[in-house]
């Protein structure tokens, strides 16, 4: 098991982690949280070398993907950087990458009854006004759990707040800051149920945020 105590606050700067070979040739991983070596709950960065591929497979309790660089593909299409995917139980695919890609991948974390297949090109989706000067792009919501992109303008501050059901953040660009530290691009932060913080930024920053799932 790796980082499976959801009552602890975690921060990982993924740039400081080495890539670890997966059982599939040309596919590498940076594990962030993992229940078992090759099954169960897992959150990882995954890198496909050009031409790497998987055989067709299913994902019990689902697969959630955000494409951080390159193009990720399967029989349903090509998904460029900024694509957000949710593949529920029963969705079978044979993924590959012609030119290589890097993904944030979450496995075995769908709630019972969440069967929606989602494929969103966030580069083509409109932003909505959020609190203060924040801009928000909702991506998924189901029974108290939600995922969104949040764009912070330079110098923006957010009020101190409590995370009911926890919060998970991946910093896509810029740097997020709170009273506990600074989180540059590539950072993964997981904060437990009822944790609090006072986040702000000094430069324009975009984060992927999931709340209510811990």
What order do the helices and strands come in, and which of them pair?
Elements: E1 10-13, E2 20-21, E3 27-34, E4 42-48, E5 63-74, E6 77-80, E7 83-87, E8 101-107, E9 118-121, E10 128-129, E11 135-142, E12 145-152, E13 161-163, E14 167-173, E15 175-178, E16 181-184, E17 187-191, E18 195-197, E19 205-211
Antiparallel strand pairs: 1-17, 2-3, 3-4, 4-8, 5-6, 5-7, 5-8, 7-9, 10-11, 11-12, 12-19, 13-18, 14-17, 14-19, 15-16
Notes on the protein architecture:
This protein is mainly β. The protein folds into two domains: about 110 residues, Jelly Rolls (Sandwich); about 80 residues, Jelly Rolls. It contains no helices and 19 strands. Strands 2, 3, 4, 5, 6, 7, 8 and 9 form an eight-stranded antiparallel β-sheet that branches. A seven-stranded antiparallel β-sheet has the order 1-17-14-19-12-11-10, with no helix packed on it. A two-stranded antiparallel ribbon has the order 13-18. Strand 5 and strand 6 form a beta hairpin. The protein is globular, with a radius of gyration of 17 Å. The mean pLDDT is about 95.
Annotation field: number of helices? 0
The total tally of domains equals: 2
Question: Mean of the pLDDT scores?
Answer: 95
Main sheet properties: 8 strands, antiparallel
CATH topology of the largest domain: Jelly Rolls
Q: What is the level 1 CATH name of the largest domain? A: Mainly Beta
Overall number of strands: 19
Residue share in β-strands: over 45%
What is the H/E string? EEEEEEEEEEEEEEEEEEE
């Amino acid at each position: 098991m790796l980082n499976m105590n959801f009552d602890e606050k975690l921060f990982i700067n993924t740039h400081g982690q080495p890539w670890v070979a997966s059982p599939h040739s040309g596919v590498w991983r940076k594990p962030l949280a993992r229940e078992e070596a090759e099954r169960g709950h897992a959150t990882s960065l995954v890198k496909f070398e050009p031409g790497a591929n998987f055989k067709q497979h299913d994902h019990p309790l689902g697969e959630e993907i955000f494409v951080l660089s390159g193009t990720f593909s399967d029989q349903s299409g090509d998904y460029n950087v900024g694509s957000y995917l949710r593949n529920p139980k029963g969705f079978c695919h044979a993924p590959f990458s012609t030119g290589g890609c890097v993904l944030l991948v979450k496995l075995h974390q769908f709630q019972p009854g969440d069967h929606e297949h989602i494929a969103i090109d966030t580069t083509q989706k409109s932003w909505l006004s959020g609190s203060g000067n924040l801009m928000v792009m909702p991506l998924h919501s189901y029974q108290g759990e939600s995922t969104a992109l949040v764009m912070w303008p330079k110098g923006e501050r957010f009020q101190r707040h409590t995370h009911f059901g926890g919060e998970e953040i991946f910093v896509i660009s810029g740097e997020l800051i709170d009273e506990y530290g600074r989180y540059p691009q590539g950072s993964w932060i997981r904060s437990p149920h009822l944790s609090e913080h006072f986040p702000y930024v000094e430069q324009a920053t975009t984060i992927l945020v999931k709340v209510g799932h811990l």
